[in-house]
Amino acid sequence: MKKIIAVIVFVLLAPGVFAERIKDIAEVAGVRPNQLIGYGLVVGLDGTGDQTTQSPFTTQSFNNMLKQFGITLPEGTRMQMKNVAAVMIQAELPAFAKPGQKLDVTVNSVSNAKSLRGGSLLMSELKGIDGNTYAVAQGSLVVGGFGAQGSDGSSITVNIPSVGRIPGGAFVERVVPNNFANGQPIVFNLHHPDFTTSNRVAKAINDMLGPEVAMPMDAVSVRVTAPVNPAHRVDFLALLENIEVQPGDEPARVVINSRTGTIVVGEHVRVSPVAITHGSLTVSISEDYDVSQPNPFGRGETVVTPNSEVDIEEELNPMFKFSPGATLEDIVRSINDVGASPADLMAILEALKQSGALKADLMVI
User: Fold this and answer.
1) Quick check: 322 pLDDT over 90?
2) Can you give the pLDDT at residue 263?
3) What's 36's DSSP letter?
4) Among the listed residues 98, 108, 94, 101, the one whose alpha carbon sits nearest the alpha carbon of residue 169
5) pLDDT tens digit sequence for 142-192
6) Which helix (H) or strand (E) holds 134?
7) In this structure, what is the dihedral angle of CA atoms 22, 26, 30, 31, given to the nearest 10 degrees?
8) 73-123 pLDDT, tens digit each
9) Which DSSP state fits 267?
10) C-alpha 42: how far from its chain's center?
11) What distances in angstroms separate CA 80 from CA 83, 85, 257, 300, 314, one per listed residue?
């Protein structure tokens, strides 16, 4: 029986079919989100918090919080708080975020809390890489996972109960400065570097707005002369980002995921004239035993003699040949006709690359 290879194929259709907006293939330089991180305490847990004997920083954090409210515990007090957990908080601050806007936050246990279900995050600062506070988070957690444990020690856990989210749980407190309104030219950075795409973006802008408005700087960046007035810059950028451009074709490339057996072959992959044969040997070894017994009244002994059989089978798979300039369709059809498995196909492609017959980049991930 032939084995069919599952190959994902990217085929570029007629020109103009895959025209994309500039906003989908590029981003404005300097206009980007920023990562925020913070540390805090989650309280109100149902006995699933940190074991404070193994995480002393949880107790220390709790004591520091109490001191802010004028509560000082006697020296040497050792609390066993099963309803408190130390957590790290993550959030993403969008570009142009203003004070008072809400952010979603993700809360992760950093010690041995079993679950954050039912807990509430106490007010915590979220800082940027510069050490400044840009948001403050607080609120009740939404936890997708859960766990249960029986009296005999058996337990079950679904998803990850030590991670939760607070939708809109943080308020922005500080604006991140950017250079969008400084009157300088706008620069578009392509998501995928490509000289052809960069040139086409500049040409599309110039065709609409006039010559020399846009200039490709390299395979990534396109510089566009923009108005100085901030309000006019917004209108100008809204016009630019909706211009449609046909991106350049991706380079000829074959991507192999050796862990999952997934193989992705680009449209422009070509193979030079080459002949390939695919065969395999199957070795079967069976072991039988012959028993030799003496006559009923004889003085001989029973002897057991092993009898091994070795059988070797070779699949008579034919050799197939690629003609000059063989296309992707030819490659897939030929390999399917041979009946190769995904692992065999990977070996064939690697051998083709080593021989110089495969005219494409071979990437193994």
Assistant:
1) no
2) 80
3) E
4) 101
5) 998 655 555 555 556 667 889 999 999 999 999 998 888 788 899 999 999
6) strand 133-140
7) 60
8) 887 777 778 899 999 999 999 999 999 999 999 999 998 898 999 999 999
9) T
10) 29
11) 9, 12, 49, 80, 70
Q: State pTM to two decimals.
A: 0.69
Per the listing, tokens 């100085």 go with: 228
Two tokens, residue 325: 């300039």
What is the rounded distance in angstroms from the CA atom of residue 335 to the CA atom of residue 5? 8
Where helices occur in 210-289 by DSSP H, the ranges are 230-240
Bridge partner list, 27: 189
Residue type, 159: N
Helices and strands in the chain: count of H runs, count of E runs: 6, 24
Do strands 244-245 and 358-359 pair parallel, antiparallel, or not at all (unpaired)?
unpaired
The single-letter code of the amino acid at 137 is A
C-alpha pair distances (Å), 143 with each of 13, 160, 187: 45, 8, 41
Burial of 237 (0-12, 13-18, 19+ CB in 10 A): buried
Place of tokens 């007090």: 77
Tokens 């007035």 correspond to 229
Q: Residue 256: helix, strand or coil by DSSP?
A: strand
Angstrom distance (rounded) from CA 117 to CA 42: 10
